[in-house]
Amino acid sequence: MRTTPSRARLPPSEVVEAPPPSEDGVHLTVRVIVLTAAAVALVSWLFVAAVHIDDRYLVNQVSGAWMGLARYVNEGILYPPLFDGERYGGTRHMPGQFALYAVVAKAMGGNYLLAGKVLSYTIGLALIALLVVILRRDLKIPIWLVAALVAAVVTTPVGQLATISIRGHALPVILQLVALRIVAHRVDRRAAIAAGLLCALAVMTKTTAVWGAVAALVWLWGRRRASAAAFAAAGTTAFLVAVAVIEFASRGRFSENLLGLSGAAFDEGVAALVLGAPKKLLALSETGAGATSILIPVATAYVVICAMQRQWSVYAMAFVATVPVTLLIMADVGVGHSHLLDLHVMSAVAVGALWSERFAGRVDARVPATIVALAVAWGLAGNYAVSLLDTTRNAWNVASGRSDNPYTISGLERRIRAEGAILFEDPSIPVSLGELPVVLDPFMLLRIGRDDPAAIAALERRLDARAFDLVVLFHRPGVPLKGNEPTWRDIHFGARVVDAIARNYEHDDVIDGYEILTPRER
Questions:
Q1: Which conformational region is residue 338 in: left (phi greater than 0), alpha (psi within -120 to 50 degrees), or beta?
Q2: What is the pLDDT of residue 175?
Q3: N or C: the chain end with fewer CB closer than 10 Å?
Q4: DSSP bridge pairs for 516
């Protein structure tokens, strides 16, 4: 009779229990923690975006400048004059996105608030999709980490400003990332030309969108110099042709704005760049990009490894290129959180590249991989507690009808509709009401006055004559309406205009976060 041999049994002391399923050496528990943190953050971000798609959440005077530029385009004016005798223009924005914005707004019946949100949401979703493709398809990192890195970018205050406000920072990042992805896969002449055209288009949407071109050029130069030359020629030619066309179409106002105002806010010169910019970068990152700030040291470690081993990826080069560009931007007195997007997007991509090259499939990398994963989860949790928890709760209360929406200006609209001429600090309000603002950008008004004091004198005369029925300012408790106050002296309107407002207008009311001033009695 045939018998089946029994399996040999190991002594109890030699029995080895199978470890829990793991991926890249990271314990299942850690993966669940990271994925949960990412899912909660992303779902909250989507919910907040959906609730606030047609209101003024994250909309302010910066958004208003974009709205005003788009409305001017639909009025047949590409770049308004700095001063036309009645209204004040002034911008440093390149035309790519606000021209696209104008098309969307016209298609949506002139609703510039909703159109701006829809365009930003669309661009934000495109950025997410591109990051998923790069991180998952190209770098092949695990999906739970992909979700965490994407959440770390878009759910911070920096990411929210870029994706669900009305701003112009996400589109140039997308264009540069697509260009980098092209040359990462192919270095032939056709790919180089396509990447060069995309980089030129990126600069036409934002003047400082140059880190992608730098990284792509260095990458191509080290692999195929003929392709590097084709990249540079295509990008430079496309940029020069675009500039010439826009200069002609704007009747010279493009250069008047860009050349006259691009450096106008670098008030402290070299000192601000060398001393103030790093400090400002760290401060803004701490308050506006908690989750991705944790990734910057990890991305820096990746760059150090690449340098030591002389094995650079195009994404490591791009991360390095974003640092000096971001520092240069930080020297500008007018920049805020939204200008950190480039650096923080590339931090996430660099961490993904590090994982792909150094951690994937390596059991000996279990400890550093776990540390990185937990750091991302910690950053997401901290960011959620600081910037998303209350926002999500408030959005839920609005959606469920438990509270009124604090991001509407229905009360203010009722007050101002019966009035005549109004001077607004926030240009988004008149644009939303179907009008062109007297001042397109209060930050730029101060800079216009430095080169053209007569233009500011004209506004002073109108204020002294009390030609405006109302002056509407942001309500700033504790900030006096005095020209020597830093908020006014260095940021908005300037001392002369603010002093003219103070001597001719007085406080009347505060509605929806705005202070209403009416003419003083003579």
A1: alpha
A2: 98
A3: N
A4: 472, 509
